[in-house]
């Protein structure tokens, strides 16, 4: 594992890339608890019930203390993949019903 230093370096590189490409990033994203973590935590490999029950455990623990879960969930409510706003894709579909 590359660890914390690698995650922080990757986050810094992502910020630099956003700035170089002049990408508008919502202010709330700068306060997100997930910032700097390996994206694979939020996009685990797997499918179906098994993925929803265990594949998102680390993402769920990171999101639990996030101060911007609601804006994240609102922005990504229709995303088909990934763990956004403290919810799995299946949980987001259930919220829309």
Give structural notes.
- The chain has helices at residues 3-20, 48-55, 57-64, 69-75, 89-96.
- The chain has 97 residues and is mostly helical.
- The longest helix is centred in the first third of the chain and has 18 residues, at 3-20.
- The protein is globular and about 35 Å long.
- The relative contact order is 0.12.
Q: What shape does the CA trace take?
A: globular
Helix/strand order: HHHHH
Helical percentage: 40-55%
Low-confidence stretches: 1-10
Q: Structural class of the secondary elements?
A: mainly alpha
**Rg computed from alpha carbons, rounded to a whole number of angstroms:** 14 Å
**Strand portion:** under 5%
Number of strands: 0
User: How would you classify the quaternary structure?
Assistant: single chain
Helix count from the secondary structure assignment: 5
Distance between the first and last residues' Cα: 39 Å
For the largest beta-sheet, the strand count, sense and barrel status come to: none
Question: pLDDT average, as an integer?
Answer: 78
